[in-house]
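TEACHING EXERCISE
Course module: macromolecular assemblies
Task: Read the component lines below, then compare them to the predicted structure of the full complex.
Student: A.B.
Group: 4
Components provided:
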Amino acid sequence: MTGSLSKSIVIWTFVIASLVMLSAPTIVVLGASFTAGNMITFPPEGLSLKWYAAISQASGLRQAFFRSLYVATICTLIAIPVGTLAGIALAKYRVRFGHGIQIYLLLPFTIPLIGSGIGMMLAFGNAGLAGQLWPLGVACAVINLPFMIWAVTASASNLSPDLELAAANCGAPPLQRFLYITLPAVMPGIITGSLLMFILALNEFLVSLLLVDARNVTLPVQIYNSIRSIITPDLAAISVVFIACAAIAIAVLDRLVGLDVFLKSK
Amino acid sequence: MRPSRAAYPIRWRVMDILEQVAGKLWPRSFSAGLPYLMLLPALLLVGVLVWGLVEIGDSSLRTLDTSTFLMSENYTLANYQRALSERFFTTVAGRSLMGSLIVTVVTLIFAFPYSYLMVRTQSSALRKFLLVALFLPFFIGQVVRAYGWLIILGNQGMVNEALGLVGVTPIRLLYNYPAVLFGLVQYMLPFAVLMLAPAMTAIPAELESAASSLGANWISSFRHIVLPLSKPGLVGAGLVVFTLSLTDFAIPAILGGGSQDFIANAIYDQFFRTSDQGMGATLSLLLVAVGSILVGLVFMVFGAGTLAMGGDRK
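Instructor-supplied answer key:
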């Protein structure tokens, strides 16, 4: 950075304030999960792992966590083939009505989440699917699909069409070209996209709240229901699971594509 | 024939069979349709949303019969009339619109220096640190973050306990309008920074050096160079932040404690408290309309490629 001292002071003041805002909840939840007391107090009453022991015993929280994992897995399994094919098609071919199709495929982002959630709640309810868990996986795949398509198109547009022509020239039929040339080339995009889909479905709160019934809640909904009554440290311990998942996802993302891609100008 | 068998491994045979099946199912003469076939699953999946919107539209035209608690059979526009005239709904809408406007301005004020530092810093370690600090909360999810704020700001929370240590009586920091706005600002910050950063990257650092070599101090080089050139990023980030805050549910629900409802909370209550499906659907549809118009503006300003999908081949 170039510039004077006063500039650095002003910028750093804002950045440090932002960093505190961004990180304070995470750090506090981490700290609270290790408390030895029965309440979350400040300063903490000493360190212990007893709340982790407590959540490993609590079947309600564990089941809610497995439900979230199940939903995230279904979401990812649907999104991978659907998003990959669509992403490759958009990047590789000049599609008629391409512009319209893109706007249509961005509907999950343009429709507010509460609208999508209510719509799918009514639709699934009329179709007799209410209360089941797998439609929630489908719903999560729908609302986050643009992320998957975006990730695949981004890596597919780096693929030179000459490579496939060369393969065809050597006698490779279409399916082989797809499996041995196109698919490996877009693999980083597929991995990035599926990671995003998985973590976003794991955390999905509003659509879960609308689509599941009270006996079948996912973990974010379970936490939401509990914090409205009383705040106990066991919720902090289970929240650390989310923090850990997020940290792993970021580490993998950074290894695979590098976080710096988000800074590139188009 | 033995040597040729060895030279033609089983995997190739499988591939040949698959190739033949693929050729039968999708002959070469159909090849123009191939991209559409590949797009079809995605089109169908997003179709679920369209189906949902149709259901919302249908429900919004039916009113609740308070004597039987059934939805009316015939269509009427009564719900829309109520939504636009009843005091309660206009209050909630006003609160949400005003709140989103404040949140947008405050978020942009914080996001601007953050993305400036992130883009301009020489140190790649600092850049990575700033990026991780952005992504971690983004991936943790709203509920856990709001839970963290409950611990910090609650009546027996960290801030009040710390104030108590120096003899200040506890202050009510939660369940009011500022708490919701604060929660929204910190929720929106990553979105705003990530939308601003590409616009910042596009501004050459030399422009600023040139300005300062011509005698501009940093404030005027910010005002006359960085700010105008990052305008597309600011507009995009502002619209996204505005739309997302306007339609948010979790933060007003958790940090507002039921007293500071935004539109999404009012919709939820119509469905799950009042059981007036028609009214809830009407409000949803109105919100979808407002949200789509706002996002439509983003597309008009930047083109549909903004969210970085598709065909910009080099």
